[in-house]
Design a protein that fits this description.
The protein is of the alpha/beta class. Helices cover 35% and strands 22% of the residues. It folds into three domains: 137 residues, Nucleotidyltransferase, domain 5, CATH 3.30.420.40; 171 residues, Nucleotidyltransferase, domain 5; 109 residues, MTH938-like (Hypothetical Protein Mth938, Chain: A, 3-Layer(aba) Sandwich). Strand 18, helix 13 and strand 19 form a beta-alpha-beta unit.
């Protein structure tokens, strides 16, 4: 592909280095992601192999947009564990071989632009403060429940990293004295009780004692690795064993949120990570009930608990925000710099958006792109309740989601949709499609929309 002319608009590349995948994204100062690349993290003891994949995802997102490294203003890299942003060194990554690697100087030499290094949960929290569920918050704590559990604390749109760059390691607060051994070497840590690795351990121990679970069928008998997607399926099928263990994990998460409230009193606590992304709406009632049971009230009602609105994008968008700050660009001032396409005509079976005619349901994403809803979203009378659609409508700094429910709306039950958006701090307007179009055209918010024209 021939290189595009250099743009005045600054481009940023972000890389999320995870234990199982390395995700790269190319985005602009508004948080619009223009290209993505996801590659598996090499299972290796050779750090050069992981660095090569990091370079590969950066090169891939540039190639996808026909850009070169000269078109990049800065690169943000997120790594799990302890990092030294000033020296550009990965100090300690428990589940990777990158410890001690001078990552910043290497990538700056390779790509010829500024590079910033950060802890993945710190940057995930920054992403949520910029374009996610904590947008506009003066203070926020992001708690990310994945294989392990990490967190970040933001105040006045900046991350508090602590005196030794280890602030926010909530996964290693001891919640059960003498409890299960944690990967950090201590016992009874939050992570060792409610992270996905702990959930997997408890399920395998129960099965070894003779209990049955649908996971045996879902995973073809191999319970050595139980991903969040499999846990979600087991919960949806009302598996008693998984329900019990996940309920216990939810209780522990709830009490950890109480601890955060009493220690830091952030305006918002945001729950994210792979486990919450897959199972958060199921775990929510238990977690919320525990937080609501707090007997130590504040002086006023403000903020609260919410689920991540960005999902997998939280870390890469936080890395974009940090990279932009590195070169003197305040992305928080670009929140509303989105040009939304006009809806020029709308009638049963036809909608014209930005001059293009569609004969099926369409979605307008937060950055103004128009997408056909597709058969997965529009193949039944309750398409607006599909999690795929609802998640799509929350991404990218959405303040208001607009649902056009069709031209003949008969007793549509959208209570689940309202709950879904409320938990992620996105307001919802659900209207017959003609009224939804009017609301979309009149809105000044950063928004997304789904227009049903098929019924």
């Amino acid at each position: 592909m021939a290189a595009k002319p250099r743009s005045v608009e600054p481009n940023f590349v972000a890389v999320d280095v995870g234990g199982t995948k390395i995700l790269g994204a190319l985005a602009d100062r508004r948080g619009v992601v223009h290209a993505r690349e996801r590659l598996p993290t090499p299972r290796t003891d050779n750090p050069a192999e992981i660095v090569e994949v990091i370079e590969g995802v950066i090169a891939a997102v540039l190639k996808e947009e026909g850009l070169s490294h000269r078109d990049v203003a800065a690169i943000g890299v997120a790594v799990p564990g302890v990092v030294d942003p000033k020296k550009g060194i990965v100090v300690r990554t428990p589940n990777s071989c990158l410890s001690g690697v001078q990552l910043v100087s290497h990538l700056e030499s390779r790509f010829g632009c500024r590079v910033i290094l950060g802890n993945d949960c710190n940057l995930g929290t920054l992403g949520e403060v910029w374009l996610g569920a904590a947008r506009g918050a003066k203070s926020a704590m992001g708690i990310f429940v994945g294989t392990g559990i990490g967190a970040g604390f933001s105040q006045k749109k900046k991350i508090w990293r602590g005196a030794r760059e280890v602030a926010g390691e909530i996964g290693h607060i001891v919640m059960e004295i003498g409890g299960p051994l944690c990967g950090c070497g201590n016992r009874g840590c939050f992570e060792a009780l409610a992270g996905r690795a702990a959930i997997e351990r408890d399920i395998r121990e129960a099965v070894a004692k003779g209990e049955s679970t649908l996971l045996t069928e879902i995973l073809d008998g191999d319970l050595s690795v139980i991903r969040s997607k499999a846990l979600k399926e087991a919960l949806e099928r009302s598996d008693p064993l998984v329900e019990r263990i996940m309920r216990r994990a939810a209780e522990i998460i709830g009490y950890a949120c109480l601890t955060v409230r009493h220690l830091l009193d952030p305006e918002w606590i945001v729950l994210g990570g792979g486990v919450m992304e897959a199972c958060g709406d199921t775990l929510w009632p238990t977690i919320q009930a525990i937080v609501n049971s707090d007997q130590l009230p504040g002086a006023c009602e403000r903020g609260g608990l919410c689920l991540s609105a960005l999902g997998d994008d939280a870390v890469v968008l936080g890395a974009v925000a940090a990279a932009a700050r590195k070169v003197g660009i305040n992305v928080f001032k670009s929140l509303r710099d989105i040009k939304y396409p006009p809806v020029e005509d709308c009638r049963p079976g036809t909608i014209i958006v930005n001059g293009q005619q569609y004969e099926e349901d369409v979605v307008v994403l937060s950055h103004g792109r128009v997408k056909k809803a597709g058969s997965k979203l529009a193949n039944d009378s309750e398409a607006w309740l599909s999690e795929e659609l609802l998640a799509m409508l929350t991404r990218g700094g959405v303040e208001t989601a607009i649902l056009g429910l069709g031209f003949e709306v008969r007793n549509a039950d959208i209570s689940k949709a309202y709950e879904f958006f409320a938990r992620r701090r996105v307001s919802l307007l659900a209207l017959p499609t003609p009224q939804a179009v009017l609301a979309y055209e009149r809105s000044n918010a950063r928004r997304s929309a789904y227009f049903c024209i098929s019924r």
